[in-house]
Amino acid sequence: MIRRLVKSVNLFNAGYSYLSSSISGSIMARGMPLAIGVELTNNCNLKCPECLSGSGLNQREIGFMNLDLFNKVITELRPYLYNVNLYFQGEPMLHPQFFSFIRDSENTHTVVSTNGHFLTAENSDKIVRSSLNKLIISLDGIDQDTYSAYRENGNVESVIEGIRNVSYAKQSTNSLIKIEIQCLVNRKNEHQIPEIRQFAKSVKVKLSLKSMQIINKDDIEEWLPGDERYRRYKLKDGEYVSKSRLPDRCARLWFNPVITWDGKVLPCCFDKNEEYEMGDLTQDSFREIWDGPKYRIFRKSILSGRHMIDICRNCTSGLRGVKY
User: Fold this and answer.
1) How many helices (H) and strands (E) in the chain?
2) Which of 37, 118, 202, 317 is most enclosed, with most CB atoms within 10 A?
3) Rounded to two decimals, what is the model's pTM?
């Protein structure tokens, strides 16, 4: 009862702070975040060309989060959190203590997104018996040629088998875990959407079709799908730009930060190269960082000129008529 009250009061404070700041332009930041993203590792087994980790464009050191650091964070934030995403860059199931992070997130709604290459029958059974609430599995094609056009070094049969494994494990154990296939729609796979939809139906899991972020401007026409619903970019004055209106506000700055594997606090999941580090959790508490000067300055910059911040130009916040 007390736990619910604390979360409810924090929800009100965070929501009021965001709305007040958005309307007045004056920074107010009462409350703590409602959700966090936690990067277990930025290492990955794939080489996806439009991913900073896979393409080799990520300038951060590769590493794995220390479980003690995670427990420090989750202990401080658990009273306020509604959701924990155990992923950011990289493949979370590569972490040798992957299941320990799920265990230590218990009693908070927890989500994992994976490329699906490690969903063996044993791992699938452990997942559905764990406290994990939702598992997202990437499937960007139904045959090897289409799939590996983007998921370089990947094996579509391994992923399909993994999806079947976890679906079977869920049904066998009557688990309440939600399983979702996520497809990044692009020019090379959009023709297979009906087949991917049929496969999802056959294994009794949800399908999410999402617009694709493209980081290499020279490659936009190679990947941009023909279907406007899945395009997050439009052609303007001879250049592709985001369809977002980029309004001078962003709820992520009040509700949903990201923590990298080595304890850096980032404003959101679009800061993939750690350009806007807000603080270091190996040195300070989360509250000190959340209420600190770097966050106040960055929140102010969002409210006064979000269009000038480079990480916002790929953001899906503010997009209308686009699946993301």
Assistant:
1) 12, 11
2) 37
3) 0.94
